[in-house]
Amino acid sequence: MVLGISNKTVRNVLSAVLLKLGASSRAEAVAISRDAGVGGGRTAPGSTRA
Question: What one-character DSSP code corresponds to residue 39?
Fold first, then answer.
């Protein structure tokens, strides 16, 4: 069994997040989140991304 979400669901959730953050783009949402200390610049365990 495979579970998934539709493109429409992703669009709706993304729109809600952008609205709550007061951001007009994903990049702006990332900047707002980083300024708020979300993420802390760490990578996931086992990640090869720097």
Answer: S
